[in-house]
Design brief:
Two copies of one chain form a homodimer.
Chain A: E1 11-15, E2 18-19, H1 26-41, E3 49-52, H2 54-62, H3 71-86, E4 99-105, E5 115-119, H4 125-133, H5 136-153, H6 167-179, H7 193-211, H8 219-233, H9 237-246, E6 254-260, E7 271-276, E8 288-293, H10 297-302, E9 308-309, H11 313-316, H12 318-335, E10 339-346, E11 349-357, H13 362-374, H14 380-386, E12 399-400, H15 402-407, E13 410-413, E14 415-418, E15 421-427, H16 430-438, E16 443-447, H17 455-460, E17 463-466, H18 474-482, E18 485-488, E19 494-496, E20 501-504, E21 507-510, E22 514-518, E23 523-526, E24 531-532, H19 535-542, H20 551-566, E25 570-574, H21 578-586, E26 592-596, H22 606-615, H23 619-644, E27 648-652, H24 666-676, H25 680-690, H26 702-707, H27 709-728, E28 734-739, H28 745-766, E29 773-778, H29 781-785, H30 787-790, E30 796-799, H31 801-809, H32 817-825, H33 842-856, E31 861-864, H34 872-881, E32 885-888, H35 893-911, H36 918-925
Chain lengths: 933, 933
């Protein structure tokens, strides 16, 4: 890296309609900092302040937690800047400047990092606050909150494992029981000024006792301590878990925003709120949000009191409401996207504390995009980019069955915080919820309110139910982002964490009991309720709803139509049955990319014929057993060909090792022995003989067809006989026969010879002609290295990225759970390589194979059929290397289509020299810092 | 391929001191054909004839077994050529030309393909033969032999599975019992002319009955039929098995030699023999071979009668003997190598039928090479090339223990046909021998005589013992080539195939009983005899013999000294103990390339501490258990460092998955529970928890050190504490610490940080400095693809080609047995990829890694430590890609050194523009036909 000749600017000021930074500088200033600058610039009422850049964070971690020495003088300048604008002074006893210190990363990480409010208060400056507010109790309450927050976050006075309660809470409870002996659940509001003064004393003593250090009185010490705590929180456990889930690289770092305090809690003509320019749950174009009077912003988000809808602000503070409506319009026009913003009203005066693009459900994302394009606020291309591809399948998630819901018993109501329907066993603690989910249970996480500590449980649950908190509470925010069903603020719930029960209306529900929630309407039901398909499924797949009945479907369709316009990379589907094929085609799949024939062998008595085949000791017996399987396979293929109605179908030959088809337990072996009339002992011997130490690397794939060519022959015959039959019915058939696990060119030659020979035989027998291809699945590294030779005979490649990942990384998907978690925590791996293609490893081999394959056969058809085919990042990668299609499970088809369209548009933009793409790419690649600007 | 403008020449003539071809044209004419031409050219007495090229064979198989149409006119010309020289005529009743038709591939494949003799005989031409030989019985015997041979080979009249005897034998036995009723075992010689005439009739009838076709009387039909049969035999099962064992590609094809017959069986002044210019078993410079009077060449090789030493020819036919001695000298001078040749004496006149480089034991190969270099017949560089590297370890094979042999009971004597000592259970049939060997038994194959059908059994056996046949019998020839111990012609053995017994001197040995054979002296012993190390081992390793006592050692040393002169690529060893290290160093290893630390954990109570570690539930308990292991490891490493005396030692961190260290059976689990005081249930749970579906791709290698860094820490500490100790003793120590299974650069970084930190700690504690490297094992494909990034921190790469082969090919070594055999038979794979590096797959990744590694760190140390390190072809590959060293098991060190020297010399020659290398390379690469000339 060349040495910077110019010193980096570590502190960016904003205030009074001017700002050093702007909204585009998110990488350097974080999302919050950049948008505070931008709002200041466009004239919105933002309290002045400054942002310490993410570079300081990076410097801090790269240099053993040391700051650049130029930092502190600049921080001082920033404070002076606020003092000048507000006519206040930091640490002054008359007109003290109080500030907040907040984190602000490039991408919002709600609740993940630490915040300190009311900073600057001490025994002297409190007088100034009393004077300014005219409210002594408020001032002392602010002070004791500040000490509590600072003590917890900066000085680390927290609950120890051997304690039952937070130490500050413990002290407060102690005081309450002295003041109100015999009473339980005394409200904080009953503590008067003197009590609060006493509390301040006791809190300070607690801090001294636990840390050995006094609580710092000097505001500058407070400020440096808080800035350090915010930077430190970038590496706390919660933040690490969150980043892993959302693939945020740790090198990004966080910025720190220091901003003059405004108080929403000075009385009833003050308040705080959070709002969205449109409804982030349904996507409807209504002003959406909530506020609390006499409260600070954190109170709204924390969900301690249930707030009022923002629309009611009109009645309470009409002027502020008018201003807010104006802000709403300005924001959306300026940012050209739905904004999620925070405001505080101090004595009827509106202040903007934050704005950002609003998190949204997939439902809302699609509606926002389609409607904003109709409103000409954005183009249709932008609309496509606006919908996060990996959330699109939420639209296909089930809802409650309409009939079932009628007979269900609604036991409570809450807020519709995350749309969709979920049913599961209730768990009252994140760890237990996660453990139950690991066992395969469907879990509803039920909490009084959630906090970042609950994240693991929320990830594991199908739905989240809270007793407190609004639609922008932690629970709601996180649930929507994850696409989880959520009902928040269901205040009738009485939750007992010790007994592990939920009591509603006198009725007791224990952990493990079933409940169901509808996050679209905010209702809670007792017991299990059958779920029903989403509207889109009903329209497209089940045809139980007319297109005109569903606005959701219409928005979805519009989006998909635009996608079609944007790209030509096809999306196929992985389907093993006519029904799956039909579903995928309804979603826009242009064929089958992977039909796994082995799944067909497990039904009914087929498995017996299959087992007979495996147990055969000579070729004649084996052929006899295969002949029993032939008609089944033929019928299956015919069904699939009909469902595809002329679209191509990639059919893979038998792939798994034969032992997967044999019973392993003694009892089952005996049963099989009776059914097929072979001694149990013999079956056992064969089971032992077929046992493999590493079945993944064993006798499977084309290795079966090489040793038992009669299997490939039977499968070829089934395919072509089915094709002949369906062709005679007048339907076109385009089989693409795929030889799996090829590593040596001769393997492919030998197998494709069989296919072509049988095709010719059947064509002659049936008097028809076939339009077919023979190709291979590229799924072991060797195949990528000799792809030029394989392509001499193979007409297509389909990348089997599941196995290619396992072999390239030497990592079994089944066994990697034990260490992959550590790997992600240590950031050895950027993402789970089984979910998203390992581009710098597996990706290189894919590129090699593409290049070599094309060198021999320029028009070779190239596709991908691993699980990665439905992962947006992987789809983008496939687009980049120039594949003809991706293939994924039917429900992921819309996601893949959207991702494909987004890639095509991104490429167009890049080609046009636009630079809007850089952020997206940088995110995935953890680019080194020098590339960030 | 561009069209040939010139038509290929399909037939090459030789005779009368002139020849179309010469000795260099082995690819086109086969070994036999080329040398017949060469011998003709240098004036040796060769019966005239012609060679049909290998191109015809290739054409034949490439065109559905059709011949090029230009062939037959040329064959006719060839016959005319013989007729002219000999004044005979093909099919003539007075002076008929009779011919032999023999196969002849590029490399000799003894006994693998078919031969037809006496061709041209029929009811008319037999009169000419009677006239010429004056021996009617001889003529009729020749005729019935011809019919029998032709009927068997060309017309396929062979034993059917439901028959007990060969059909021709059956007919002959029938005739004998009619003529000599009541007698058993009537000798063929008792059949007189009339009987033979009758036999000819019956043989013809048999052929008509079995094939529906009459026996062809037209000599031209006989000739075309025989040529076809020889080409057809290229693809028979025996030939395929043989080619697989010796890696001969099927595309090479065979040539066909048609040559005028000479008769060694016309009476007592005729004979046939086989001889070597020097002793091919011991390497001694003596005329070596054997002959039979009144016999055709096939009789000598088949071992039906035991022949007499060639030296005795002097007494029988002194003139022929003188000529033969002359031929011996001419041959060796001309071919500059030991020749193995066949001759026939017809009425005292000597004819040469074949010569080729003599197969030899490793012992002889070394002696030939060293002595011929001393004789200035060849250069020292040629001497190096003359010893097949993959046989060199035969010199290190054990011999019988001197003491044990004294008390052993010699029960029979035979010929010293394959040197060395072998002890094992006797088996009388190839299949049973092979089956027993597969179960892990040491097997001696005992046969009356062997034939190509016994090949599988011979491969499986440690030694071969026959009752009949000389030192050039099939058994002896094949055994020497394979490096098997062999005693042939032990005529006291009475073998009963039905009862499966061997009777010697009235004593009965049943199948499964132990016997021992000494192939160096030709002795057979009852029971098991302890084997003792070879002389080289005794001199170098055990120091129980003085160098001057062993000529074998001295030749070996000379060769190794030349090797040292020829190359600079080092050979290291894979060793886990001081003893192994010392042995390898004695063989010339320049360090340890792989020390597997896990092997150290299995001894004594270490395994208990290891298990305690694995069963630990928290880091403190785990550290406590690791501390118990530390002193063991430290002592082991100290011992190894001392044995190496300053040479470098690559030490690999713990590699196998932890479950490999835990007991699996209930009983063992209970025992362990008692020993370490942990409930059995808990151990069982942990065993289940650690179970892996594909352990090869599981939680192992550096993945252990990542999840349990304390293990890497302990191992680092053991290494450096041991190093400090040994350094203080005054011995240099050069540890090279190797992190296994790295796939991601960060894995390496994290682990090497531990190593470097601990090294610094120990250096400080002990007040010493360390000279060490930290590097990685490249053994999964991903590592090769990001080798540039890994090389930023890694100071060396060692290619772990075992695992790299498994992952690159997606093929488990443990499970591939079930299909790899088919793969080799179908020639999908040229060689077993676990024995010899898969150069076009795995090799490409190695090259990628070498290039990428060097791009970041030009001086990176590169080595290989898989099993391939001792395989000559793989060593040559390593030389080619520029590795610094190979590492192999101690006993393979000389082999690897020789292979390394050969590669260096080959490279020099190639650089000097010489072209002698082409044959060798072509062999491995199965070059397409167009490259062959």
């Amino acid at each position: 890296m060349p040495k910077n000749t110019k010193k980096p600017k570590y502190v960016y000021l904003f205030g009074n309609k001017k700002a050093d930074g702007d909204g585009k500088m998110k990488e350097l200033l974080g999302g919050k900092g950049a948008n505070l600058a931008e709002m200041t610039r466009i004239g919105l009422p933002v309290p002045p302040g400054f942002t310490i850049t993410t570079e300081v964070c990076t410097h801090y971690y790269a240099n053993k937690r040391k700051y650049p020495k130029e930092l502190w003088p600049k921080v001082k300048e920033g404070v002076v800047h606020m003092e000048k604008i507000l006519g206040k002074k930091f640490g002054d006893k008359n007109k003290p400047l109080l500030v907040s210190v907040r984190s602000g990363a490039r991408e919002s990480m709600p609740g993940m990092m630490d915040t300190v409010l009311n900073l600057g208060l001490n025994e002297t400056t409190i007088n100034g606050l009393i004077k300014a507010s005219g409210n002594e109790r408020f001032a002392w309450d602010s002070y004791r909150r500040f000490i509590q927050m600072y003590g917890d976050i900066v000085m680390g006075v927290q609950k120890r494992p051997d304690e039952d309660h937070e130490p500050f809470e413990e002290v407060m409870e102690g005081l309450k029981s002295e003041m109100f002996p015999g009473e339980h659940h005394v409200l904080d509001t009953r503590l008067d000024t003197n009590a609060l003064k006493e509390l301040v004393k006791r809190f300070k003593a607690l801090i001294k006792e636990r840390t050995g250090h006094p609580f710092p009185d000097d505001p500058w010490d407070q400020l440096t301590g808080s800035i350090g705590a915010v930077f430190g929180s970038w590496m706390n456990d919660r933040a690490i878990v969150y980043r892993r889930k959302y693939n945020i690289p740790s090198e990004w770092g966080t910025a720190v925003n220091v901003q003059a305090m405004v108080f929403g809690n000075t009385g009833e003509n003050s308040g705080s709120g959070v709002a969205f320019t449109r409804d982030p749950a349904t996507g409807e174009k209504v002003f959406y949000g909530e506020f609390l009077t006499n409260a600070q912003g954190e109170d709204v988000v924390a969900g301690v009191r249930t707030p009022r809808p923002v629309i009611e602000l009109k009645d309470v503070m009409p002027k502020a409401h008018r201003e807010l409506e104006d802000v709403r319009n300005k924001l959306e026009k300026h940012f050209r996207d739905v904004q999620d913003f925070e405001f505080t009203i101090e004595n009827e005066e509106l202040f903007m504390l934050q704005t950002r693009n609003g998190k949204r459900t997939a439902l809302a994302a699609v509606r926002f995009a389609v409607e904003m394009a109709k409103e000409k606020l954005i183009t249709w291309e932008e609309a496509i980019q606006r919908v996060p591809a990996n959330q699109l399948d939420q639209l296909l998630a089930p809802v409650f069955d309409r009939k079932a819901i009628k007979s269900a018993r609604c036991i409570a109501k809450g807020l519709a915080a995350g749309p969709g329907a979920a049913t599961g066993k209730i768990y009252l603690n994140a760890d237990r919820a996660a453990a139950a989910a690991e066992k395969g249970e469907k879990v509803l996480l039920v909490r009084v309110e959630t906090s970042p500590e609950d994240l693991r449980g929320m990830i594991a649950a199908v739905g989240i139910l809270t007793a407190r908190g609004g639609v922008s509470s932690h629970a709601a925010l996180v649930a929507r982002q994850m696409g989880k069903v959520c009902v928040s603020g269901a205040s009738d719930l009485r939750i007992d964490y010790v007994k592990r029960t939920v009591t509603i209306d006198g009725e007791v529900y224990a952990e493990g009991d079933f409940m169901s929630i509808d996050g679209t309407v905010g209702e809670v039901y007792a017991g299990k309720i059958e779920t029903a398909p989403s509207e889109i499924i009903q329209v497209l797949v089940n045809k139980t709803m007319e297109p005109s009945e569903s606005a959701t479907y219409q928005n979805f369709k519009k989006l998909m139509d635009w996608c079609k316009k944007a790209t030509k990379m096809g999306v196929r589907t992985n389907a093993d049955s006519p029904k799956q094929a039909a579903t995928a085609v309804a979603f826009g799949a242009v064929g089958i990319g992977l039909c796994r024939t082995e799944h067909m062998f497990f039904e009914g008595d087929r498995i017996d014929a299959m087992r007979e085949m495996i147990l055969s000791e000579d070729i004649d017996t084996r052929k006899k057993a295969l002949n029993k399987l032939l008609p089944y396979q033929r019928d299956d293929f015919a069904g699939i060909f009909r469902a595809l109605n002329g679209l191509p179908a990639t059919i893979r030959f038998l792939d798994p090792p034969l032992h997967e088809f044999l019973p392993q337990e003694d009892k089952q072996i005996k049963e099989l022995a009776n059914v097929i009339g072979v001694p149990a002992e013999k079956i056992k011997n064969r089971v032992n003989e077929l046992h493999e130490v590493n079945p993944m690397l064993g006798h499977r794939g084309c290795r079966l067809g090489i040793v038992y060519p009669e299997i490939s022959e039977m499968q070829s015959r089934a395919i072509f006989e089915a094709a002949a039959k369906v062709q005679k019915e007048g339907t076109k058939v385009r089989p693409e026969i795929m030889i799996p696990l090829v590593g040596f060119p001769a393997e492919f030659q030998l197998q494709s010879e069989i296919v072509r020979r049988v095709a010719a035989e059947v064509a002659k027998e049936e008097g028809v002609k076939f339009n077919f291809l023979v190709g291979t699945m590229i799924e072991i590294p060797r195949a990528t290295l000799v792809a030029d030779e394989i392509a001499r005979d193979a007409q297509f490649f389909s990348f089997g990225t599941n196995d290619l990942t396992q072999t390239t990384l030497g990592m079994s998907r089944d066994d990697s759970g034990s260490f992959l978690r550590h790997y992600q925590e240590l950031e050895i791996l950027p993402q789970n390589p089984f979910a998203s293609i390992d581009q710098s490893g597996v990706g290189k081999l894919i590129q090699t194979a593409v290049e070599l394959g094309r060198s021999t056969r320029p028009d070779i058809k190239l596709g991908i059929c691993g699980e990665h085919g439905g992962d947006p990042d992987s789809v983008k990668f496939c687009h980049k290397v120039g594949l003809s299609y991706v293939s994924c499970s039917p429900y992921r088809v819309p996601t893949a289509r959207l991702a494909a369209a987004q890639s095509a548009l991104a490429e167009q933009r890049a080609a046009a020299g636009a630079k809007t793409k850089s952020t997206k790419t940088a995110k995935k690649k953890s680019t080194p810092k020098s590339n960030k600007r």
